[in-house]
Q: What sequence folds into this?
């Protein structure tokens, strides 16, 4: 997922996606702790996706505040 795709989504969709990514990150951490994690690089990509979603949400919030 890239930032351009995220900018096309509404804030509600972004929040839903953020919740899903955080759940996935939790599950990946749990799998890593129990030794069941096969793709360790997935943790990194999920963490970066969370950061991207948060960045776009903050940009949208700043833009909305600037319009008022």
A:
């Amino acid at each position: 997922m890239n930032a351009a795709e995220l900018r096309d989504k509404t804030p509600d969709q972004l929040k839903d996606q953020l919740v899903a990514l955080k759940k996935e990150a939790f599950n990946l951490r749990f799998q890593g702790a129990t030794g069941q994690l096969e793709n360790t690089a997935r943790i990194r990509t999920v963490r970066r996706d969370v950061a991207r979603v948060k960045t776009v949400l903050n940009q949208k919030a700043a833009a909305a505040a600037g319009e008022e």
Observations:
- The radius of gyration is 14 Å.
- The mean pLDDT is 95.
- Residues 17 and 23 are 10 Å apart (CA to CA).
